[in-house]
UniProtKB/TrEMBL annotation:
Name of protein: Hydroxyethylthiazole kinase
Pathway: Cofactor biosynthesis; thiamine diphosphate biosynthesis; 4-methyl-5-(2-phosphoethyl)-thiazole from 5-(2-hydroxyethyl)-4-methylthiazole: step 1/1
Organism per entry: Blautia celeris
UniProt entry keywords in alphabetical sequence: ATP-binding, Kinase, Magnesium, Metal-binding, Nucleotide-binding, Thiamine biosynthesis, Transferase
Its biological purpose: Catalyzes the phosphorylation of the hydroxyl group of 4-methyl-5-beta-hydroxyethylthiazole (THZ).
Length: 274
């Protein structure tokens, strides 16, 4: 079932529009290709509306915000929504500045997101109006632990109810939930927090998986999160064999997504569904 979701991406090869940051844009484009989809990274407001129509899915990432990109996000988001395309929000560093927090609020007001994917600090900020963060990375004090797992699931389910979106919280433990069902995912490796853009790449994957599986939203987001975690584990093994660093690991990560089969995804998945 989860494997079928990846196979559908390869079969249907959806076009994914990414309005994203300049730090990790190239990695997002390559991981989109690696999973079998096709990326476009254009962020000009002049073509945003047309791109929103042309694409099969849209990923909006707040990593390096400025007024022109925000205009493009709003235009593309409204256009994509009008054509029923799935739209993902990655609220990068939402708590780091007033501009980011207010932009996240505006995007949430104006665009009906299909999924919202962020680290725990970002999701806490945009779900509760809290105003703190450690830049674009999760604050260690927010980490999801076995002790606060239930509370975190409740927060994510409540946020899903208020937005209508599937909520994905990434970290050592990943939570993917709608209002009723929750995947608790334990794939991944700590080295992933040392590669900038693992979260950004995951959001691009999420848009691709959703676009190819529009009727299985929760499963599609969970399959994307498991793909990223599992390929992170495989990439770490290669990194350790080679004694390379985080840049080598980043390349292996993209390669592992390229090579992953549906069957391997199912075999390697470590999750509990509640
Ligand atoms: N300590 C960890 N153990 C296992 N997997 C992890 C760990 N930290 C992050 N990951 C994995 O890394 C990926 C990205 O999650 P993370 O929460 O670091 O995103 P992020 O903060 O948005 O990243 P970025 O903004 O750099 O793109 C997810 O697949 C997650 O499961
Ligand atoms: C480091 C960084 N700064 C803005 S976006 C980005 C990539 C990770 O989110
Ligand atoms: Mg991020």
């Amino acid at each position: 079932m989860l494997g079928e979701i990846l196979e559908n991406v390869r079969e249907r090869s959806p076009l994914i529009q990414n309005i994203t940051n300049y730090v990790t844009a190239n990695d997002c484009a390559n991981i989109t290709l690696a999973c079998g989809a096709s990326p476009t990274m254009s962020d000009g407001e002049e073509e945003a509306e047309e791109m929103g129509r042309l694409c099969d899915g849209l990923n909006i990432n707040m990593g390096t915000l400025h007024p022109r990109s925000v205009k493009a996000m709003l235009l593309a988001g409204k256009s994509a929504a009008g054509f029923g395309r799935p739209i993902v929000l990655d609220p990068v560093g939402a708590g780091a500045s007033t501009y980011r927090r207010e932009t996240a609020e505006e995007l949430l007001r104006e665009i009906p997101f299909t999924a919202i994917r962020g680290n725990i600090s970002e999701i806490k900020t945009i779900s509760g109006g809290r105003n703190s963060s450690k830049g674009v990375d999760a604050d260690a004090a927010d980490a999801v632990t076995e002790e606060n797992l239930e509370k975190t699931i409740a927060l994510a389910r409540d946020f899903s109810g208020r937005t209508g979106a599937v909520i994905a919280i990434s970290g050592a433990v990943d939570i993917v939930t709608d209002t009723k069902n929750t995947y608790i995912i334990r794939n991944g490796h700590p080295v992933m927090a040392k590669i900038t853009g693992c979260g950004c790449m995951l959001s691009s994957l999420t848009a691709a998986y959703l676009a190819a599986n529009p009727d299985r939203k929760l499963e599609a987001v969970a399959a994307a999160v498991i793909t990223m975690g599992l390929c992170g584990e495989k990439a770490y093994e290669k990194m350790a064999e080679e004694n390379s660093g985080n840049a080598g690991c980043r390349n292996h990560l993209i390669d592992e997504v390229y090579k992953l089969t549906g069957r391997e995804l199912e075999r390697g998945a470590k999750y509990e569904l509640r």
